[in-house]
C-alpha cells in the first residue's frame, strides 16, 4: 500500500488531470460502495440516529448510513466489504463520515492496518437531522491490483470511549476526486430535483480552466506572489505596494486547515479557482497545534506545533504562490487553546473546564510569551519542502498577524476569566509600572488615595486592576474623581503592556528571523469604543497594518446559531442596503498605516446578500481600504454544498467576485478625500477623554456572546456622523506635532431626512429608504438592492431595469477602457439564492436545510446602453466557469440606444464590440 498526500501533480499537470474529473461519463475508473451494506458487520443494525424518512436524511448516499452509539467495549464494531477493482493502478481512497467521530482502522486484503484518527481535515460538510453532519475525508492513495479484494474497517476505540460513529460511503477513484455530497463522479445534482417556478438551478460541471474561457482574472496577479520581493508600505505609509513599488489592493478570502489539508489536486484547484475569481490574498486562519483541543476540548498535553499541519500550511502557501496569491498568516488565537495550563501557566486548573482559554495573558505573562516566540521561530524557520524557503524568507508570505481577536480592553478582560495567579501577576506588574513611573507607590497613589480595590497590597507590591467595565462611559459616569484617576493610570499601563508585546514581536520577526513582509498586530474591539478604540488602535501602530473584523449578522437564533445553521433555528432576512448602520465597512484609518479587514462576511441564513460584494468593493475604493478577506472559503470544488453560517462560496458572494474584485483592485472609484480627521493625543486618551469618530462594532455572533449582558457595543456620537466613511475617508493620527482636527460639512452628501447619501461627484449613491445603492464610474456602473422600489437606475452610459425583487447587476470593462470605449464588457447579475430543498416558515423557523444544487430566482433585467460608440459584434451568455454557452441573448437597437435583455439563468454575459 502506498501512503501519502498524492503530491505527484504539478500545477500544469494537475490542471490537465482535472479535466478528467469533469467528464460526464468517467467509465469504470471509480468504485463506490455504501458503508451500510457490508458483507459482514458487528455494527448495530439500528441506533438512535440511523437514517429514516424524515427530511434531511436524503442527503446521505443511498439515504442511509452505518452507525454506532454508546460506549466502546473491548471489541469495537467492525465491517468488511467485497470489492471488484476494475483495473490495476493507483486509487484515491475517500470516506464520507460523521465529523471527527469514529476514528477507525482500515485495510485492503491482508495489508497492514492503517489508522484514521480524530484530528483530521474535513471537507464538503452536509448538515443532517439530529444535529449530525456528514463530511468527506481523504484517507490515502493506494496501489491495487485488478480483481476482487476485501476492504475492512474497525473503529479505533479504547474501552470506555465514546463509540458514536456514522459512515455513509467510500470511494476509490483513479482520477482526482472532488467530493460533491452524495453524488458520484459524473452525476448532476440537478437531476431529479424539482426547481420551484421562477427559479433556476445552478449545476455546472467542475471548472477545468479551459483556454477558451472568456472570464478569467488570473492575469491580474503576478506570475507568482512575491515576484518582485516582499510586500511593503508606500512611502507615505498609507497603502501597500508590491516589491517593485506598484500600488496594490487585496481582494481576499479566509481559508482554514481543513482546506489546506486536502490532497494536492484540490489545493491546486482551489488556488487556481480563487485567482480566476480575482483573489490575490488568502488568510490561513487555523490552529497549527498538535491535538489543539477543539475535537473534544479535553487535551492536556503541552501545546506544540504539529509538523503535519505545518507541512499542510507550506503546501497551501506554495500552491497560492504559483497563482500570484499572497498569504496572510493568522496562527495564534487564545480560543484555539482549550486550557492555559497547556502553556505551563499556573492556576488554570482552578477554573471551570470551559473557562480555561488563555485570553489576555499573552500581553503580560513572560512564560506565555516565551512559548509564543519559540513556536513562532519554529514555524517561520522550518524550510518549506515545496519551495525550499522558510516562511520567514518567502516573499509570498505577505503578512503575519500576531494575535487574533484578543486584547486588554474587551469584555473578556475580567478577573473571573483568569486564574487568581495570573491576575495577581498582572497586578504586581501594575505596581512595578507605577513605581517606575512615579518613583514609589506612595507617590503614585497620592492623587487617587481614596480609590480602593480589594486586591491592593501596597506594602506587598500589588495594586489592584479593574475589569473592562471600569474603562467604559457607563463607569465614567459613576466613578469618583479619585477612581477615574486610578483608571487612567491603569489604561496607560495596559496600553503600554499591549503595545510592548507587539513591539517585541516585531523585533523578533525583523531582527532575529529576517522577515521583510508586512505585520499586523490584532483586529479586535474595546468594550467601549468611544473611550478605548483609539487606545486599541494606538497599540497596533507598533506594526505596519491596522486591521479590524466585521460581519453583517442579521437576527439568527437557536442552538449553536452563532456558528452554524441548523433545523429548528429561527432567522430574519435583512438587507444591508436598508441598514447602513450595520455593514462592517466603515473604517477609521490611522495615518501612516495601511488599513485592512481580515475577516468580513454576510452571514446566513439570509435571502438578501446580493448587495454584499458591491458594498465591499465600493468601500474599499472610496475609503482606500488596502485589503479585505471574506470569511470563509469552505468549497472543495467551485461552490459550497451545504448552508454554512459564514457562507462564501455561493452564487451571491463568490459568484459576484469577478466584476467586484476587478473594480476594487483597479480603483474604478477614486479614493475619496478625508472628510473627518482627529488629531489625537495619547495622554488625553489614557485620561478617558475618548474620541468622537467611532463606528459600531460589527461582531459575529460567536464573539458577540462575550459582550457583557446589557452593555452597549458602541456609544452615542454627538459630533460625528457615523455614515461619514461612506462618502469620504475618516482618519486619525497620534501625537503628531502641528496636526489638527478636520471635519467637512457633509450636509450635501448625507441627507438623513431623505435617507440618501452620495459622494461629491455622485460616483457612489445610496438610498437607504428605497434600499438601492449604485456605482457610476467610467469603468464600472452597477446597482444592487430592491429593484422593486425603482423604475430603473440611470447612470452615465447606461440604464439598469429589473423586475426582480432584489439583486445585483454590474457592468464593467474587461479591457481597462471606459465602458463607452470598451471592446469587451462583462455584465454580471444575481438575485436571491437558496439551496434546493431549504424550507422555513413565514416566521423564519428552519424546517429543512436543503442540499445541492444551488437555486436562484430567474433574472429579469435589461441594460440599455446610451449612445454607444461601437456596434456590438457578439453578446454571449457564459456558464459559471466563464465558458460560452449556446443560450441566445437578445439585444436590439432603439433610437440611439442598444438594449440587452439578460439571460434568465446565467450570471455572466459578455459583450464584444
From TrEMBL:
Keywords: Signal
InterPro entries with a match to the protein in the record: GH (IPR017853)
Stated name of the protein: Uncharacterized protein
Signal peptide start-end: 1-24
Domain of life assignment: Bacteria
Species whose genome carries this gene: Algisphaera agarilytica
SUPFAM superfamilies: (Trans)glycosidases
